[in-house]
Amino acid sequence: MRSWPVQPMAGRIAVQGGPDDPVLGPDNAQRYASFVKFVEGADTGKAVATYVSLYPLFQKAYEDLGYPNRYFNDRFIEVIDHLLATPEVAGPIRLVRPDVKGPIKLEAPYARYEFADPALESRSAGQKMLIRMGPENAAKLKAKLRELRRQLTAGAKKP
């Protein structure tokens, strides 16, 4: 975990309701506030300039990972578009505890939770993070992603 580019959020997931009807608590969004503030404060132009200057290293690493005939930047834009396509979820988000097989039963507050809605639970880790952080935080990050995408593709040729 120490080598992950983004560390897990501090604290535990904020859950409301009883053990049989847990929902994602509105206070959960506060866990992401400092990360969102950091991203909002980043200079997008400088971030893009740094990305462009380091791009040869990203491309080489991408090829070394087994993608010799593809461009890292294309994948980067695909991921941004994927995150921008994260749905906005209205109302309380129901949670469930996963069925853990084994001798140890996990109890709150240490229990893991999944989205009760299979359509939400089947989403990517990035989209689930945007959903968990709440609509206001997600909107702020999506705005920054749109700006990043705009600047990255500003010089791209139109078909």
Quick gist of this model?
With 159 residues, this protein is mainly alpha-helical.
Q: Rg, please?
A: 19 Å
> Mind summarizing the main beta sheet?
2 strands, antiparallel
Shape: globular
Q: Structural class of the helices, strands and pairings?
A: mainly alpha
Report the span from N to C terminus: 42 Å
Q: Poorly predicted ranges (pLDDT <50, ≥5 residues)?
A: none
Taking all residues together, what is the mean pLDDT?
89
Total strand segments: 4
- Tally of separate helices: 6
Question: What is the chain-wise order of helices and strands?
Answer: EEHHHEEHHH
Strand order of the largest sheet: 1-2
Q: Beta-strand level of the residues, as a percent range?
A: 5-15%
Number of domains: 1
Features:
6 helices; globular; 159 residues; 4 strands; two-stranded antiparallel ribbon; mainly alpha
How is the secondary structure organized here?
Blueprint: E1 15-16, E2 23-24, H1 33-41, H2 44-64, H3 72-84, E3 95-96, E4 114-115, H4 118-121, H5 125-132, H6 135-153
Antiparallel strand pairs: 1-2, 3-4
Model description:
By secondary structure, this protein is mainly α. It has one domain. It is 47% helix and 5% strand. It has 6 helices and 4 strands; from the N terminus they run E-E-H-H-H-E-E-H-H-H. The strands form 2 sheets. It has a two-stranded antiparallel ribbon with strand order 1-2. A hairpin with a 6-residue loop joins strand 1 and strand 2 (23-24). Helix 1 (33-41) packs parallel to helix 6 (135-153), helix 2 (44-64) packs across helix 6 and helix 3 runs antiparallel to helix 6 (135-153). The longest helix is centred in the middle third of the chain and has 21 residues, at 44-64. The N and C termini lie far apart (42 Å). The mean pLDDT is 89.
